[in-house]
Design brief:
heterodimer; A: 740 residues; alpha/beta; seven-stranded mixed sheet; 25 helices; globular; B: 400 residues; six-stranded mixed sheet; three-stranded antiparallel sheet
Chain lengths: 740, 400
Amino acid sequence: MVAKQSGRNRGGGGGGTAAATEVSVEELARVPLQAILLADSFATKFHPITLERPKVLLPLVNVPMIDYTLAWLESAGVEEVFVFCCAHAKQVAEHLENSQWFAQPNFSVTAIESNNAVGAGDALRLIYEQNVIRGDFVLVSGDTVSNMSLAEALGEHKERRRKDSNAIMTMVITQSKTSPTTRQSRLGTDELFMAIDPDTKQLLYYEDKSDKGTVSLDKTLLSDHPSIYLHNDKQDCYIDICSPEVLSTFADNFDYQHLRRHFLKGLLDDDIMGYKIFTHEIQSNYAARIDNFRSYDTVSKDIIQRWTYPLVPDVQFFGNSSTKLDRQGMYRASVVGQSRSAQVGPFTVIGSGTTIGSQSQISNSVVGEGCKIGANVSIEGCYIWHNVTIEDGCQLKHAIVCDGVVIKSGVILEPGVVLSYKVVVGQQFIVPAYSKVSLYQQPIKQDSDEELEYADSSTGFMDASSLSGLPDKLKEESTIQLSESQLQAASEVGSGGVGFIWSTSEGSHEEEWRHSVAPIPPAKLLEIMHTSNNELEVVQQDGNLPPSGELERDSVTANSNDYDDDDVDVKDDYEFFENEVEATFKRALEENIKEDDVILEVNSLRLSYNLATADCSGALFYSMMKSALSAPHPSPSDLVKNAATVITKWKKLLKYYLPSIDEEIEVILKFEEMCLESAKEYSTVFVQILHLLYDKDIIQEEAILNWASEKEGADETDKLFVKQAEKFIQWLNEASEEED
Amino acid sequence: MPDMQGLVNELIDKLKKRDGLINGLSFVLVLMLIRWQKGEGITGTALQTAELLRSVISVQKLPPTNKAAALINAVRDVGEKLIAANPVGEPLASFCQLSVGNVIRRVLHIVREEDLSPSSDEAGDNEEEITWLRDNTAPYVAEIIRPPLLHMLHTFSSAEEKSKSYIFGRSRKLKNDVIEAINMLIEDVNICYELIAEQAVEHIHHNETILTLGWSRTVLEFLLAAKDKKRSFHVFVAEGAPRCHGHALTDSAVFAMISRVNMVIVGVHAVTANGGVIAPVGIDMVALAAQKFAVPVVVVAGIHKLCPLYTENPEVSLNDVRSPSELLELGNFSDCMDFGSVDGAPLVHVANPVFDYVPPELVSLVITDIGGHKPSYIYRLIADYYSSQDYVRYGKDALL
């Protein structure tokens, strides 16, 4: 029997062994693909959470980030991974041990621990010293989520290397448009400018910290390369395929820390050894790095939407428990205690062992394992990690809630809140927007200048590593420590709460909304829009661009005939602009568009026609009056009524464009002009409408009086309406005198 | 799969040690499956599963009594883990899972059959098991699934057999028989293409026009076999978007062309117990168009694709939804997916399901290795190839 069995085994494996020998011959010729995984971001963007746990172990849709990266590397054919751990190195190593990554055949994971690295540069220098990298390797950080196949990029890299040994690095990029208003990508990173040679795909310029969206390219680039594409719609995936020379470059330049800011720019600017960097653009695959809370939110949503397939919750790759996909992107673990009256909305993940009370509503959120959610709780766009208790009647919006947090009943979390590990929020407490709550007190920081960030982060992490022993201490000496912190922190997060609210320094507060999990509030967007418009205006006035103000226009017509054409153009432009505004306004009426949106559109029109705010107010008023005119009006009094309704409805819009008296006068002048020319119907009711405008606070008396006095010396024909309004003006004059 | 044998050996080592096995085992299995499925498809997965189970059985140490139960338990152990693993792979993740389940059930059936054969020495255990099943199975399951007749017969006559077993003694080795039978199963799976293709001439006639969708090796070999026999016929190949394995006719043109088609021949992922089929997306549309014009829809599938589950079963009814990037590029839609500037809810949601369920009414004929069958006959075939005890679903709430 024994003989028979072994014979069968051989028979069964016959094909396999033959194939194996073939491959082993091939294998002799090639080096196993290696990867360096940086399990430390060397940044403080995830503070205060990262004080207690390394970023790579934070759960992303209920699976630690590093598992996504490792699962991808494994499936992409990487055979050897060196995991560089620095902050909380012990925890990372422990996680790797427990998660069986060490136990896999044909995929070896080695943890390299270090306590004094302050940046990626130190990490790479350490690995260089260890002499473990034998050939081309993949350099990623442990917060990368991707499903791309490395074969193509690797093939391109090797091919280039064969032709030119100076091509030491291939960067993976993907398409992603940056928002024109906020100048940041969907991952919350700053707008990135890259100049790429379209033929060779060589990277020539890289700038992710551009000042106000301007870039300056070296002239020699243009002379050296026949064509250059300058992109601002690409996203850096932070996946690099490197040759060993990259490591030696880091070793030679001991001041390099940051992969992009120092190394990449160093190579591009200083032309070290003639090394070149190339790009590889991925089309249909997914690759993104979690750099800040915004990208945490975006990548989580991408995972739920299955862009990262097969790394999705309902497919078990590594370390996640079995979850089923229901309709509309709802993922539910097999053991979930959900009340019948609870509503779990679309694109939500519920971990196993979680219970949800009656009448609770959850949408667009991720809820971890073993959470207890009470009744009447509303959760929208939140990331709730494991073993969190949320009592009845809480309202959570766009928040991150870490493990073991207790939220007492009636608490409201405003958008962008981060509650770090084991925080307790007291009853009925309202946690203000964008605040971060931790059991640790905020380390006192020097002002974080951009250049100091690295030094800062290093001290931050030294703090972290020294603090990392604290949780245990906390448990041991809980009576002393906790009561102490309770006393101190009680007032900060409500009665019975435990935790410190971290204050955000003025400088970084501005950035808070940029990088939070909460969507940017529309008011903020408008504000940015405004400031950027103003900036543009400033630029226009500073530069010798064609003048747009009225004064200049007048002077041009008065002084020189040479500019007549120009003037005609300006007038034509204004007419076009007026028509456009009218059309926009009409559309707004028909489709019930919000005022804010109309303002946006009009603003953009104004910019494209290069006109002043006063023109906008004139044009808008014109279109409003037109619309009132277009409505049926059997008698003049009906016309006034029509105008009144339109004006009341869009008062806010008009007011927006009337920041000063000048604009208001402009409106009156415009109206006068209308009555004379395009809309003679109004000529009879001029005074009534003027009165109406005054009543509605759109036009101040000062403006009317100014207008009247301006008209004083004008022709008789021009005075027509002033005369009509004589009584009204008189009344106004008297009123103001009375007041005096 | 160069390293498969190595992996199996490693697994066997672990099995021998039998301690700390649970995690290690499932882990190795997941990995193996991930590897296997790359480019292997359903048939490949079925083969690998069978080979793996053979290795498991061959190293299993059997206690002096209760041999069959020990084997069954061992196979179940592995099976549960394979199913629970829900392996990731290309191109048909969840259907590989179904085919893994099918093979496990087949092997369990083989063990039972061999155990029940007259020469077996442990018929008693089997009786025990059946009563156990009766006691433990939910009543509805017991009602729906009746044990095959043969099985019943043996149960009733088991008392006699018990006395017989003393006569024959322990002369036959159960294990050997099982392994032999699994070898036959592997052989069957290996030659299923030829067996199916042999029947091509009976179905494809001269000057016929045939329509198929996507790409299927079974269909290809079926058509080639007919061509080899000097039949001349036309084939329309619908592309089967979004994977587009076929290229000749857009999917949307199927209805326009179906009136001049004599027969639709498609390959499928699985044939369910009611005779319906689970097939790549688009086939339901083709079948509906065919029904409208009374064109026969012929399904070709190896016997290992017969699945003893009904469509109500969540294992079957859950569709696999793949990445939207097969349909559109994220880069082009990145501004719609910017969660920072809208209210945080996605503006675009792209669903990309993998397969269709075609009800038995729309299927005219199912051609397997052993001949053509009406869909209504599939339940009978299933009774021949699987044991009713194993129909129950695997997983946490399985009745095992």
